[in-house]
């Protein structure tokens, strides 16, 4: 008797998988400020996808939810990842194979079916990356993860985009490192102010070019966080926005902007954003820490 494997089984055999759940965000609401995901008319409302092109993924690793992702199956890149920052990951960067998400693939009885809805190792072959001067860029960076397992969970193709190499290792990396300092110093868990807590969203705006004629290369990347600022007893936010482009000099910085300005930019460059955080978490932190070159 011939044994025919489905595409999802083939995917599991082809490369490791993170056993996540393609469900609405109510299953992992802890990663969103006030338990509410962003409101994006026609795409994401009431924590549910409004368009089958976009998948809401509760990212699970070692039987525990680690973060949430809105994923664009047409462009094969995440729109954003949402997570909680509670402390810096002090362990070394994990070295493991990039993981895939079997639930994103349609069932099939044909062997050898290409992975329709997500990137794979084959898309990120060296010649393709060299041609576009890109590499794999995290949305939820492993340096923001609270523990080794959470850091490992970020190494999934549903959490990365093709990012310009000099940008990824340059100003974007410096911003990721400096926001660790900002959030660690100013953001507190309102219920226990001895603990650090910030709700973070990091995303990408699709561009016009593709990697391997399949995976969209974003034109812009953005990050914002909302947290309780104990020194003013108020909820505060801060945001960042930058083009995904080659950096010719090594001291490029990404200036912080207000949440409202980020939403304006997203509405101009992508689609109308009603709100990223419930009630817009509007009071800005007004912290200006230079993005130092290491």
From TrEMBL:
Keyword Signal: yes
Leader sequence residues: 1-20
Xref: Pfam families: Endonuclease_NS (PF01223)
Record carries keyword Nuclease: yes
An example molecular function term from Gene Ontology annotations: hydrolase activity
Superkingdom of origin organism: Eukaryota
Domain DNA/RNA non-specific endonuclease/pyrophosphatase/phosphodiesterase: 63-272
InterPro entries: DNA/RNA_non-sp_Endonuclease_sf (IPR044929), Endo_G_ENPP1-like_dom (IPR001604), ENDOD1 (IPR039015), ENPP1-3/EXOG-like_nuc-like (IPR020821), His-Me_finger_sf (IPR044925)
Residues annotated as domain ENPP1-3/EXOG-like endonuclease/phosphodiesterase: 64-268
Transmembrane parts of this sequence: none
Alphabetic keyword roster: Endonuclease, Hydrolase, Nuclease, Signal
Record's protein name: Endonuclease domain-containing 1 protein-like
């Amino acid at each position: 008797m011939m044994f025919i494997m489905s595409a999802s089984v083939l995917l599991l055999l082809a490369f490791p998988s993170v056993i996540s759940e393609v469900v609405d965000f109510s299953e992992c609401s802890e990663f969103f400020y006030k338990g509410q995901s962003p409101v994006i008319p026609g795409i994401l409302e009431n924590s549910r996808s409004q368009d089958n092109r976009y998948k809401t993924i509760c990212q699970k690793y070692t039987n525990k939810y680690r973060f949430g992702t809105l994923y664009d199956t047409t462009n094969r890149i995440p729109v954003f990842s949402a997570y909680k920052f509670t402390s810096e990951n002090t362990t070394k960067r994990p070295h493991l194979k990039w993981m895939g998400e079997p639930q994103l693939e349609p069932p099939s009885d044909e062997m050898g079916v290409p992975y329709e809805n997500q990137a794979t190792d084959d898309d990120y072959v060296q010649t393709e990356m060299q041609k576009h001067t890109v590499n794999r860029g995290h949305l939820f960076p492993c340096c923001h993860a609270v523990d080794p397992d959470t850091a490992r969970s970020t190494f999934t193709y549903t959490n990365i985009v093709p990012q310009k190499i000099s940008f990824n290792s340059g100003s974007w990396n410096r911003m990721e490192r400096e926001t660790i300092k900002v959030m660690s110093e100013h953001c507190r868990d309102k219920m226990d102010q001895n603990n650090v807590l910030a709700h973070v969203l990091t995303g990408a705006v699709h561009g016009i070019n593709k990697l391997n004629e399949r995976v969209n290369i974003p034109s812009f990347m953005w990050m914002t966080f909302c947290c309780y600022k104990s020194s003013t007893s108020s909820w505060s936010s801060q945001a960042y926005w930058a083009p995904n482009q080659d950096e010719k000099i090594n001291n490029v910085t990404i200036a912080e902007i207000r949440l409202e300005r980020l939403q304006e930019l997203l509405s101009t460059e992508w689609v109308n954003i009603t709100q990223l955080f419930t009630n817009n978490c509007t009071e800005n932190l007004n912290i200006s820490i230079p993005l130092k070159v290491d």
